[in-house]
């Protein structure tokens, strides 16, 4: 179906809120860890382990998101995800037990998985033009990082003034309520399925090797970035000898640079071939992350963090776009597959890097992110070498 201008605007707004919802949930885990531990009189390590339920909840809907969107309407999926978040928050407020908290974390994680999968697919679906698609995906990803800038400030202020840990889930419910308002009268585009032959029979369009290289690159990229951000504060304090508040400032420098990059790079991909953008960004990103991990000098690290954040910002969204352009008709299962591969990195990064840290030390824990980031670069180069996107959609758009 054709997407009218006003409908496209609403779809974009819904996608932005979907990404903001997921970003709000994931980027604030560290902030709510202490208040939740204190409320239930549990060790922070125990609560941290419970948050793995969130990652699992996030993973499953992304894994089967393509199937869900073909079986159920997008509006229904978003409505259920929002309603579950609000309902569980109400129940948790009335009966704040540790068991119910674990179940709530799992289910809200699943809701975030749905919003992530649907948000990504909506942007792909309403932007058939390659340049618009790439630009819109990168700009939509900005709202994930934007949540990571806004929510910690709000929660930090509220927790400083003795607000309950439940305030985090009140905020998630408020975002869910906004999503319900947006989808209430929205007319969603149809979910694309297989191409049809003249006799009406479905044609299964082959994905090609490039998509699998994109999937590998997405996994390696997410894994490397999460390992890097996990061990960066410790590295800054132990190896670079920065005080805690200065180390925190350096971390903020990275996220601020990434948010800026997401904002600006959604214009860049309109004028630069997507393949060129991805390869160039990954090369500069590799040089930057390697410098950070192996040159323990504060000024150099500060410059490299700005560079890494900026050039790293558009790669994941760019990979989703590049993968979707490898076929004429991009089904939700393709988007879901790319997101799933990235989510595998989310599932394993903490345990694998913690094992490396325990057995080989901080240097190799951080440098493991550098090594895997190089793998992501290789995956991007391989995808570009056998890409069908340029042939299918024209070089001007890529």
From TrEMBL:
> Which PROSITE patterns is this protein grouped with?
MFS
Residue ranges of every copy of the Major facilitator superfamily (MFS) profile domain listed in the record: 11-391
Where does this polypeptide localize? Endomembrane system
Kindly list the GO molecular function terms attached to this UniProt entry: transmembrane transporter activity
What are its GO cellular component terms?
Answer: endomembrane system; membrane
Q: How does it sit in the membrane?
A: Multi-pass membrane protein
InterPro entries given in the database record: MFS, MFS_dom, MFS_trans_sf, MFS_Transporter
Which NCBIfam families does the record associate with it? PRK03699.1
Q: PANTHER family, per this entry?
A: BYPASS OF STOP CODON PROTEIN 6
What's the name of the protein?
Answer: MFS transporter TsgA
Organism of provenance: Iodobacter ciconiae
Q: Lineage, please? A: Bacteria, Pseudomonadati, Pseudomonadota, Betaproteobacteria, Neisseriales
């Amino acid at each position: 179906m054709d997407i009218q201008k006003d409908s496209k605007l609403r779809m974009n707004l819904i996608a932005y809120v979907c990404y903001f919802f997921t970003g709000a949930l994931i980027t604030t885990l560290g902030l709510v860890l202490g208040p939740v531990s204190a409320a239930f009189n549990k060790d922070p390590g125990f609560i941290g382990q419970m948050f793995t339920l969130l990652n699992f909840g996030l993973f499953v809907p992304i894994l089967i998101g393509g199937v869900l969107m073909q079986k159920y309407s997008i509006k229904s999926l978003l409505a259920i995800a929002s309603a579950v978040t609000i309902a569980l928050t109400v129940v948790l407020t009335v009966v704040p037990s540790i068991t119910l908290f674990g179940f709530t974390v799992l289910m809200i994680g699943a809701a975030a998985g749905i919003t992530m999968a649907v948000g990504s697919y909506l942007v792909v679906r309403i932007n058939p033009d390659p340049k618009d698609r790439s630009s819109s995906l990168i700009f939509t990803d900005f709202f994930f990082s934007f949540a990571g800038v806004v929510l910690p400030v709000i929660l930090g202020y509220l927790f400083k003034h003795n607000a309950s840990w439940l305030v985090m889930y009140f905020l998630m419910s408020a975002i869910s309520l906004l999503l319900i308002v947006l989808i209430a009268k929205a007319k969603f585009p149809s979910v694309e399925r297989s191409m049809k032959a003249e006799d009406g029979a479905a044609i299964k369009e082959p994905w090609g090797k490039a998509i699998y290289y994109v999937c590998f690159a997405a996994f390696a990229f997410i894994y490397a970035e999460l390992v890097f951000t996990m061990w960066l504060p410790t590295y800054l304090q132990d190896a670079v000898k920065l005080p805690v508040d200065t180390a925190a400032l350096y971390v903020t420098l990275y996220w601020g640079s990434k948010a800026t990059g997401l904002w600006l790079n959604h214009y860049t991909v309109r004028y630069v071939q997507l393949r060129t953008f991805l390869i160039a960004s990954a090369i500069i990103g590799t040089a930057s992350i390697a410098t950070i991990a192996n040159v323990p000098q504060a000024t150099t690290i500060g410059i490299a963090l700005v560079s890494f954040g900026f050039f790293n910002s558009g790669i994941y969204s760019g990979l989703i776009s590049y993968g979707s352009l490898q076929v004429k008709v991009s089904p939700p299962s393709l988007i879901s597959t790319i997101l799933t591969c990235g989510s595998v990195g989310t599932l394993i990064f903490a345990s694998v890097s913690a094992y490396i840290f325990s057995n080989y030390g901080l240097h190799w824990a951080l440098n493991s992110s550098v090594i895997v980031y190089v793998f992501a670069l290789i995956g991007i180069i391989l995808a570009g070498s056998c890409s069908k996107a340029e042939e299918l959609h024209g070089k001007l758009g890529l």
